[in-house]
Amino acid sequence: MESNNATSSSDPPSASSRKGEVSDLKLQLRQLAGSRAPGTDDTKRDLFKKVISYMTIGIDVSSVFSEMVMCSATSDIVLKKMCYLYVGNYAKHNPDLALLTINFLQRDCKDEDPMIRGLALRSLCSLGVANLVEYLVGPLGNGLKDGNSYVRMVAAVGVLKLYHISASTCLDADFPALLKHLMLKDKDAQVVANCLTSLQEIWGLEASTSEEAAREREALLSKPVVYYFLNRIKEFSEWAQCIVLELVAKYVPTDSEEIFDIMNLLEDRLQHANGAVVLATIKVFLHMTLSMTDVHQQVYERIKAPLLTLVSSGSPEQSYAVLSHLHLLVMRAPFIFCSDYKHFYCQYNEPFYVKKLKLEMLTAVANESNTYEIVTELCEYVANVDIPMARESIRAVGKIALQQYDVNAIVDRLLQFLEMEKEHVTAETLVLVKDLLRKYPQWSHDCIAVVGNISSKNIQEPKAKAALIWMLGEYAQDMQDAPYILESLTENWDEENSAEVRLHLLTAVMKCFLRRPPETRKALGAGLAAGLADFHQDVHDRALFYYRLLQYNVSVAERVVNPPKQAVSAFADTQSSETKDRIFDEFNSLSVVYQKPSYMFTDKEYRGPFAFAEELGNLSIGTDSGVHIIAAHGVEANDKDLLLSTSEKEDNQGYSNNGSAYTAPSYHNSMTTGAFEAPLDLVSLENLSTQTTSGLAIDELLGLGMPTMPSPAPSAPALKLNAKAVLDANAFQQKWRQLPVSISQEISIDPRGVVAMTTPQALSRHMQSHSFHCIASGGQPPNFKFFFFARKEEETSAYFVECIINSSTCKVQLKIKADDQTTSAAFSELFQSALSKFGLP
Q1: How far apart are alpha carbons 132 and 87 in whole angstroms?
Q2: Which helix (H) or strand (E) covers residue 108, if one does?
């Protein structure tokens, strides 16, 4: 029994053994503290290594802190380094322990060994405890005046650390002035570089509040200072050279002669083995010659060889970084690199991200003289076993064709791809053929002859299937089996998961019906019926639009759905010229690698979930991480009202036009011509009063069987809210954490409501008038976030709402929680009704 009790009250064997080991370490360290026996330092090393290894794997060894400090009284630099590492790790999070380290660190800052002085000063500045800043001023001042360059180098960086802990202490001690003196007078290049780095950051942060700091920052870009750094640039390390070159890139020379002097001085930096130095030098050359067109072009010619050399040497990561910058230059001046296209051929052992970037560059440098060789090379990649590589190669071939280079040969190559009978090749090629036909309609005969032999059953990828369906609709008159293929696709509507494919199918069936009515009547009827019942809102709306369009006038439908073909002259660029210029301004930075300006990956608005200044406690978008915003799966009952003909609506609702101020224009039926005379006899409209009959004719023609009157929508459950409900923020927060999400959905808001929402308070006041009380709000355009609560009239049951409004998309994300979840749906309808009235007259 005694042994059982002992086992139950003790820690697990692994935890107890670790505690025992730490206790043994503590005892051994205490015995060695102050000992000067031979071999003591070796024993200390072994014990220190154990402590550091435990600390590294997450075991708490803070209990041996005092013993480690006592054992640090040694001249062994290895022991010193391990002790500083240990102290820095634990003192940072425990100010009480940090206080114990001050004495021995200050003592070490006066050690005879400059290495120990430097290490101690670095550890002292790295403690990061605001209450101990007064202990840093003295050692830092001595360090900046130390006779050893390593200590001065550490002190220069230590000043910056002190500034971030306590800016006032740093400025009161006049450390920036000491750094400036060292920067301009010190003989050691690394000390000068560290002083420059610290001063740039300190003066950059102070410039907004201090005129003196702003003047000092501008003085760094003066001609004497810049030339001082340029004359010493060969003395600096590679890292320091990059800092100096970044400073020089911001300097504005007074005339062209000065520009040439600087470029001649930096000419040999283009031959440097370090890629960062080469890119920093190129940035100086490019920025200084922007206003000199001829010289700027010569700079491109000069920097081409160093960049191509860097691409072919070094690791794949370095190659990618250099290639990204080369890609930017190629996009700005492709004619300069067009003769070097073979440098961008892919090697078999290169990673995919490098190959993909090279393919983009091959498409950029393609012109009349090299298109044949480039396309031949790309066709070799299409047969590659690497499927992503094959896909990118096909896209590259298509991009070159869209640039109007050797279109005839490229179209033949693409059609050969369709005969390879590889699913991924066929899929990518179909998408490209669609784009080519939009730009070169004259090639439709050759393309359709090959595409017509492809079975839709063998195409599984949504984009490829959508492209095939587009061609079936666009060229229905040239493809004999088009109506029957579309009919089989509509019969399998429920098996198609992609909304994109279903949208294309609706349009294709409509186009085919307008060209070949008898053969497509059944397919169109089935497609419209399936579309009207579709859970996806866009599909449902498009089907409804086509149905009403046919009800109104088939000739108008033809003009809308099937207008005369016009070749697309140019496809939209993914980046604006302004964005590209912004990236060029940030040359030699991550902006070039990411291919987007820095604000897009540093600003909070672009990084992801946004924070709010008026946040309620710790409530946020991610509070319920397991809940996803979902769209409503189903067509609301009142949508059936939209199927009524215009005259029926007039009889039942007057000229409300479904809440819209828009009135459809009147078209005379004399516009009906040719092959559509027979169908138009069934649906042509002489005036609005005949639309009921024509609507029934369309239903009968297409076999839709739509009822003339919709079944009445179920009445919403009566729910009354307390207009004077009160709830404090803490109670709201507690309830929000406890209750599960009852309803989570995305809805649309009227654009007029978005316009009216000049501030979050505007919506809060509107919802307050409908008994929805705002407990917190915040955000900035385009995202606004609100927390509302409401309470049932004469009951304690409450509802809680998180409402996120995107003013750019007019979308609203709702999360509703309720004490009584059985009434959540009724409350949601009431909330949406109030929200929909915001901003309306």
Answers
A1: 15
A2: helix 95-108
Say if strands 773-780 and 743-748 run parallel, antiparallel, or are unpaired.
Answer: unpaired
Residue 452's SS3 state is coil
The residues near 766 (Cβ < 8 Å, ≥ 6 apart) are 834, 837, 838
Residue type, 837: K
b/e burial code for range 227-261 (CB count within 10 A of at least 16 → b):
bebbeebeebeeebbbbbbebbbebebeeeeebee
CB-based burial label for 814 (10 Å; 0-12, 13-18, 19+): buried
SS3 296: helix
Q: Look over the chain and give the mean of its residue pLDDT values, rounded to a whole number.
A: 80
657: left (phi over 0), alpha (psi -120 to 50) or beta: left
Cα separations (Å) of 635 from 284, 545, 652, 659, 689? 61, 15, 22, 18, 28
pLDDT of residue 711: 43
Peptide bond into 518 cis (omega under 30): no
Q: How far apart are CA 77 and CA 75, in angstroms?
A: 6
**Tokens encoding 257:** 């002669």
Query: Residue 630: beta bridge partners?
Result: 745
With CA atoms as reference, report the closest residue to 266 among 290, 248, 254, 292.
248
Residue in the block written with tokens 């870009």? 221
Residues in the chain: 841
**Cβ atoms 402, 436 nearer than 8 A:** yes
For residue 331, the one-letter residue type is M
- Spatial separation of the C-alpha atoms in residues 526 and 547, rounded to whole Å: 12
Q: Do 723 and 771 contact (CB within 8 A), yes or no?
A: yes
Residue with tokens 């691409």, as numbered in its chain: 311
Determine if residue 789 is left, alpha or beta; phi over 0 gives left, psi from -120 to 50 gives alpha, anything else beta.
Answer: beta
Q: Is the pLDDT of residue 724 over 70?
A: yes
Burial class, 811, CB count within 10 angstroms (exposed 0-12 / middle 13-18 / buried 19+): middle
pTM value surpassing 0.90: no
**Mapping DSSP to helix (H, G, I), strand (E, B) and coil, where does residue 745 land?**
strand
H or E segment and range at residue 744: strand 743-748
Task: Tell me the DSSP string of 397-463.
Answer: HHHHHHTTSSHHHHHHHHHHHHTT--HHHHHHHHHHHHHHHHH-GGGHHHHHHHHTTS-GGG--SHH
CA–CA separation, 745 and 804 (whole Å)? 11
Alpha carbon 712 to chain centroid, angstroms: 46
Alpha carbons 452 and 419: distance in angstroms, whole number:
12
In angstroms, rounded to a whole number, what is the distance separating the alpha carbons of residues 341 and 376? 13
CA dist 658 → 205, 537, 645, 753 (Å): 58, 17, 12, 18
Residue 597: CB atoms within 10 A of its CB come to: 21
pLDDT digits (tens, 9 = 90+) for 813-829: 999 999 888 888 889 98
Using CA atoms of 37, 38, 41, 42 in order, give the dihedral in degrees to the nearest 10.
-130
Query: What value, to the nearest 5°, has the Cα angle with vertex 489 and ends 488 and 492?
Result: 90
Quick one: how many helices (H) and strands (E) in the chain? 43, 5
* Of 392, 390, 347, 339, nearest in space to 366 by CA: 339
Identify any residues that bridge with 815 across adjacent strands, giving them in sequence order: 744, 802
Tell me the residue type at 161: K
Residues whose CB is less than 8 angstroms from the CB of residue 110 and which lie 6 or more positions away in sequence, other chains included:
117, 142
- CA dist 97 and 91 (Å) reads 5
What are 134-174's pLDDT values in tens digits? 888 999 999 999 999 999 999 999 999 999 989 999 999 99
User: How far apart (Å, rounded) are the C-alpha atoms in residues 661 and 723?
Assistant: 33
Written as six digits, the tokens of 572 are 């939209």
Are 189 and 196 in contact by the 8 Å Cβ rule? The answer is no
Residue of 410, 698, 454 lying closest to 554 (CA atoms): 698
Closest residue by Cα to residue 233 from 250, 219, 248, 213: 248
Cα–Cα distance, 188 to 72 (Å, whole number): 31
Q: Which of 338, 308, 343, 301 is nearest to 322 (CA)?
A: 308
- CA Rg value for the chain: 37
